[in-house]
């Protein structure tokens, strides 16, 4: 808001409607041109060859028919380390096996996350495929034991049961003798396996296609999001997530709701059953993992390389009988949440349905057109059944030739023929620089057909997978299940499911090619994990079959203009639909132009014009202004759970993002619950000596001005004082910022308050708020980084020093020392003193002195009370300042007239509490413009609505540091008025000019004179100078 106001005042002093529109449109076109081209230099700067990209679209046009062939063509043309642009995202393709080993195993920490999908919804967002960093590690470490050999043995009976249904269904086709789509049969089979193993329910999806489970699962695979505008999402990816939130998809919500409710219902049923009656399926294994201590370390995540059972040394020890008894008495910590259980069940649909059914279908196709191989499989299977009644996890390992057949089918038709990792930090691998923010693609499909490693790669030769052949081949040229710690966690289950189905099938049936069998098989190469890209291909094929450069440009430009028009108007009906009156907004900008001179006055005007519940548009954001005290009580206290969060700042950096002001929901509750005791009366008593020490410096500095007799800006002095208090109390260091303005602490703090982000384009950020966060990330602010590093390092250095000291030597500090709060959060809370405690306290001290200077009779009462106070006490502290009743009334009245936070927004940017308006409301404050401290006598406060006076907010999210601020202010004033008189002079502006950007402060300082009082505290003459 401040930046926008500055921009308007400096660059648009006489702005009219047409010139404003033209100027903004030219700025917009310039930014659009820059946006269209700027990302397409990343790969070239890294020395990575790639096809020439189109503006906005990158190389997406190459993939109209799918990815399998074009990715291979790019590698053949540009080398084994090459790249392309997937829309605006740079993708580095690595087809070098040695480099892949480095990426997927040795340097795994730099490539541990899969490609980000920014608008995934629950339950998909909680599944293992979507989780990132430590969250993924925790869930993967718990899930990996569920896929051990022992657990797979428990799954085999469930799969055998579903396989019996498959055999019965295939028998119908065998008796008919007609050709049929066996891939569809295997789709039903894998759907039934998923229902049984992951969702704890039994279905026969071939015979019962209307089963609720089947219908809702099919919704998932038929789901397509806004196909006609998917190219626009590729051009402007930051629009996708907001539009997904704004425009609900009822089918998706219904599907998600069905599976979530289904699983939670089964969880409830299982918890009510005795343990021995619970069905042993994957869902039950995850339920057991909620309280089990069984987990594995990162080196055991790779299911390709470690032994059947995790090493006990890398697991947490199983509890003894006595431990179990104690554990049952204590509350059990849930290592995996219910939402995460739902997410992992859901991942079976996401990653296990098409992959397994495709592999089964391709294997049968290959054996049908290679009958000699089918004959070998059948001989092995028949011999198997002479030794075993039915297949299970252990005995299927005996079928070596079947294993080779499945491996060769996965080589020729890898279900995941390409997979990607995010490059989380700049790094160099095998001499190649890889840039942070790009994606790294592993082209498994290309590697599986690489003639350097696979002679005659198009041929079906199961013998490629004999033990000798595998030992002589590079392990990273065959990647059907990925590799390294992030390989497919369900690999063993998939192999078991596939092999058990094939064993039963080839024991009972022959698969025969017929005239309807397509040779070679026609393939589609989208991916179940790249549904957006598939939608893009469909859009191009349907709507742009012969699209040339100019027609494509025109079509996309028309789509763009239509969406721009829609974007400029659609948010401005929200308030009207709710019956909330508001000023008429402008497209893109809302009511921002009302606030050119600040917020204090215009908000009061909106309330007077439109009522106590009204609104306005802050750019595109609807803001509801509530000036009704009863409704405010409901919002801030009674219905607090609906309004727990302050206005969201989408791009704060550390340490600010860890401060209490920025935290949200449960994290805020946790940190606030830990910090609140730090502001208790007992703790503030410990702070008083630190504040008294800083006050000594203030008194010495004011004494210089008293001796000179000249007018000076007392607000600036109080700024130095509050800076010194913050340095001492929050950062554990002592400075005198008035005498030492070059002290590193002072210099870096001033960077914070002088910081302004992109002032010239502030209006563009209001019109297009989604551009702000990406630009902040793309264009680093070196001064901000330098400031953050200074405060981070300062506090962490002090923390280290304190930890090395004996407890009795530690200085008292506000930084909490408990392990319940992290070191980053400690830094954040210290930093919040700068954010919320500097201007607010200095402004209140300045305004209080200003009011007492122009009301000498009130100042005299304060001094009389202070003089009498010092007859009883040597110095002020937390307890004795409570005796100063009149001083308390003076400070309260100053906070009423000049509330430092004159408005605040407790939920997003949607509901505003106009404290400034309430403090001047004549309905509750007769003659509101006058300074009358007696408004705050106990009797007057008791007769007034408590929610018309909100200098520190109210409810659970009020200012946590309120007591400290009051203590700091009163201790300074007590000492000041004991020694000095504050005198209005010709330089004192009456009325004072205010600025009302983020806080309410003096626009041009507060100039007064100061004189020393004599030892008796004699009253002075405070008539302004002539």
Automatic annotation (TrEMBL):
Keyword Coiled coil set for record: no
EC number: 1.14.14.1, 4.2.1.152, 5.3.99.5
GO CC annotation terms, alphabetical: endoplasmic reticulum membrane
Compartment list: Endoplasmic reticulum membrane; Microsome membrane
Keywords from the named record: Endoplasmic reticulum, Fatty acid biosynthesis, Fatty acid metabolism, Heme, Iron, Isomerase, Lipid biosynthesis, Lipid metabolism, Lyase, Membrane, Metal-binding, Microsome, Monooxygenase, Oxidoreductase, Prostaglandin biosynthesis, Prostaglandin metabolism, Transmembrane, Transmembrane helix
Cofactor: heme
UniProt binding sites for heme: 488
Main location per the UniProt record: endoplasmic reticulum
Membrane topology annotation: Multi-pass membrane protein; Peripheral membrane protein
Xref: InterPro entries: Cyt_P450, Cyt_P450_CS, Cyt_P450_E_grp-I, Cyt_P450_sf, Cytochrome_P450_3A
Record's keyword annotation contains Iron: yes
Sequence ranges of Polar residues compositional bias: 312-323
Subunit structure: Monomer.
Family, per entry: Belongs to the cytochrome P450 family.
Official protein name in the record: Thromboxane-A synthase
Species of provenance: Pleuronectes platessa
